[in-house]
């Protein structure tokens, strides 16, 4: 069970890292197929910002849940 808690926290940290890079450092190439879709006019930088923010917040939530579960049990 402890392994699952650690995996939950690690996945959260990965989401935080990717979300941070996309949202704050504008590394849109981390989104699959974004460059091609951007060139075809299907996606915009605001879309990429939203994706980055969602990943960043989701990562924070996962890390907090993992820490909370470790503290409670």
Can you characterise this structure?
This protein is mainly α. It is built from three helices and no strands. The protein has helices at 2-25, 34-39, 45-72. The longest helix is centred in the C-terminal third of the chain and has 28 residues, at 45-72. The chain is elongated and about 50 Å long. The protein starts with a helix and ends with a helix. The model has no long low-confidence stretch (mean pLDDT 95).
Largest sheet: none
Shape: elongated
* Low-confidence sequence ranges: none
Structural class: mainly alpha
- Report the span from N to C terminus: 10 Å
The arrangement of helices and strands along the chain is: HHH
**Helicity range:** over 70%
Secondary structure tally: strands: 0
- Number of H/I helices: 3
List keywords for this structure.
79% helix, elongated, single chain, mainly alpha, 3 helices
Question: What is the topology?
Answer:
Layout: H1 2-25, H2 34-39, H3 45-72
Helix pairs in contact: 1-3
Summarize this, please?
The protein has 73 residues and is an all-alpha fold. The protein has helices spanning 2-25, 34-39, 45-72.
